[in-house]
Design a protein that fits this description.
7% strand, elongated, 154 residues, Arc Repressor Mutant, subunit A
């Protein structure tokens, strides 16, 4: 990068910063004016709706209850071996290469983390699946289905 380009980019960043600060300042001023109107209004007088709501809504307040995403509920009690049985029963629904999120989606609930990974390790040992890609940073471990071994006739 040449010095002229550096200076040009720096000036552009500073201009953008000043514009952003001005937007923040204008928002603050609008909220302050609304608060002052609330303070100066007679006690029984109804205020316009725009004035009464002077604060910015939080993200959770802007979403309708139908839009919020709730994590799937686990069954009340998980008996020993239940998670493995359910994964085996839903095995055909899994894609050829999958990760834990795919398993959770197929199960319809999120089993305890340790239980899920123990079952996945058992499936690797039992040659149902193999590790296609180990986790690295933000990427999760990916598993691949193994072809069913041909039955031996003796």
């Amino acid at each position: 990068m040449r010095h002229e380009e550096y200076e040009r980019r720096r000036r552009a960043l500073e201009a953008q910063f000043r514009e952003d600060l001005e937007l923040l300042r204008a928002g603050y001023q609008a909220k302050l004016r609304a608060l002052e109107m609330l303070w100066l209004a007679p006690p029984g007088e109804a205020l316009p709706q725009a004035v009464a709501v002077s604060e910015t809504l939080r993200l959770s307040e802007t979403l309708a209850s139908s839009e919020t995403v709730t994590p799937p509920e686990p069954p009340k009690e998980i008996r020993r071996g239940q998670v493995r049985e359910e994964i085996e029963a839903a095995f055909a629904e899994l894609p050829e290469e999958f990760d834990r999120r795919d398993v959770i989606r197929v199960l319809g609930y999120e089993p305890p983390r340790a239980t899920l990974f123990r079952v996945l390790e058992q499936l690797v040992v039992d040659k149902w699946i193999s590790v296609a890609w180990y986790s690295s940073g933000r990427s999760s471990t990916r598993y691949a289905k193994l072809p069913e071994p041909a039955e031996e006739t003796v």
